[in-house]
Amino acid sequence: MIKTRLCELIGIEYPIFQGGMAWVSTGELVAAVSEGGGLGIIGSGQAPADWLRQEIHKVKSITQKPYGVNVMLMSPFVDEVMQVILEERVPVITTGAGNPGKYVPMLKEVGTKVIPVVASVALAKRLEKAGVDALIAEGMESGGHIGEIGTMPLVPQVVDAVSIPVIAAGGIVDGRGLVAALALGAEGVQMGTRFMCAEECTISQLVKDRILKAKDRSTVITGRSTGHPVRCLDNRFTREMDQYEREGMLASELEKLGVGKLRLAMVEGDTENGSIMAGQVAGAVRCIEPAAQIIQDIMRSAELEYERLTARFGDRRF
Known about the structure:
alpha/beta; TIM Barrel; 2 domains; eight-stranded parallel sheet; three-stranded antiparallel sheet; 14 helices; 43% helix; globular; Probable nitronate monooxygenase
């Protein structure tokens, strides 16, 4: 069985995080992933604190295992969200869109593990100095807001730059990806797109169907001109955004066009006019299945891949 420092740090059975995705990672999915031995993570997005507390209570009513909350530091409710996390003594938080440094001391006081998402070595170094417990190195293959470096070059550079555990994210869908991440020096993986097709995920079935129909080239990047690029499945909305960018529309106007589009897709099921944030691995997602089964499939295929490599290269490290 594959065990790493990450398992010991968080108290989870398998080194698998489910990415905290806004309008996607609700209590139902999070509890199912945690019950399955991974770490389920609530995606708080720009939701108010009361919504987050409700989802936390939902998770606690289903499982006693560790879970997490993803905090978008640019949220207008970030201070209230952090207060809920402190009051509920959430075991783990992951963060994005900013530096969580000022919150680290208070989170440490209640025993919360702080694991930011990074897209560069420089930020990884700064956050280690700020006292975070681990880092998620996320490559641009991932869905949603992305950086400019791919997972393969990013992960080993971050691993070499810090001493705390690193979780690889972006472009990972099965056990082969887990083994590859471990070979790069990571202590585990974070996955989002595959868990969107978990039975317990409450997003629209129409979105799940679009993921299942996706091919290797089905995702596109929009918003580069705004400084906040986003990877989504190609649809009418992304093509309109691309056209507006080509015509030179101001970044502020482009950002306004994106408001509410994620909810439009994930909750309301408008797969043409909404934003379907998904990673490049969408083309490798084959079916809808329980979250626990997804985790077991990843671990089983990782073991088989390790055995295959051992048989091919002998009993030496590959």
